[in-house]
Amino acid sequence: MKMRCILYIIAMDFLLCLSLIACGSNSSSGGTSTNTPTPTIDQAVGITATPTANQATPTSTPTIDQATSTPTIDQAQATSTPPTPIITPTQLSPGTCTLTGTGWDCSVILSGQIPLYWSVTSPDLPAADITFNPSSGTLSADNQYQQKVTISIVSADCQSGTGGTFVFSFSGGAREARVSWSCS
Question: What is the model's pLDDT at position 162?
């Protein structure tokens, strides 16, 4: 520790001498003086001391570049898909729907955690036999991220087949969800 103090005092004396020499002028010589910049502590060359047997070796400290490095985004997190909204129920039949004069009205509830645009189709049932109300919308904070969808199915559908599938598609990369319809 004493050695460090002595080296520090020597370094400060050296810098002080340089400052006095650079700032002084020789007006009696009548010559022109040059404007030499005054060294500052920042410009001084670092002085290092060799530790003795009873001194601890200094540990390295992070540089400014290391301390302020920009964190990277986990690639798995950056490419993950948003959660698929939940649809209940996922299976419909005449027993889970309300009988009407022309067929059945079935209700499903979409619920999610984030705003998502959605739409529903029925790829394997005749479009004339199916009505969706609404057929698309947005899950948002305004509707508490929930949407009731009524699916009206005409009874002729069950006379010509055994059922089908309703496909709910979502924006933002969320996976589609399917609801099945069975006539039995």
Answer: 72
